[in-house]
Request: fold
Amino acid sequence: MGNDLIIELDANMDMALKNINVSSGTVIHGEVGGAADLLVNFSRDVFVSSEGNTSISIDENININEVVFYPNPSNGHISLKANSQIEETLTFEVKDITGKTIDAQGSNLNFNFETSGIYFISIYSDRNYVGTKKVVITD
Reply:
């Protein structure tokens, strides 16, 4: 009893499938599409912190397709292309294929990767989650 650790976990499971179209069937395991969106939903919208922090909502003014990383695949240097008004509000979080955060950047629009592999760049506008893009780094 004296060594017990109690962790309260609040989860809003209705948010798990936010913005995921399941009309054509189930979400297939993988690193892109609905599977990647599902993981992001769990990390951003399903769980609420013990301090009561609320979920981060989608910024309805930015379409993820307006943000492009190029060249992709790349040999290590990736640049961002977006509308100049959008670029001013963007920040990024880079994760490797295991989900480990590699870098959390401010508004830097250029990325340098030292190791080949698959990376995911989560995009935020004014601290609101916009979406995640996959980049491939080759030797």
In short: Residues 52-60 have pLDDT under 50 and may be disordered.
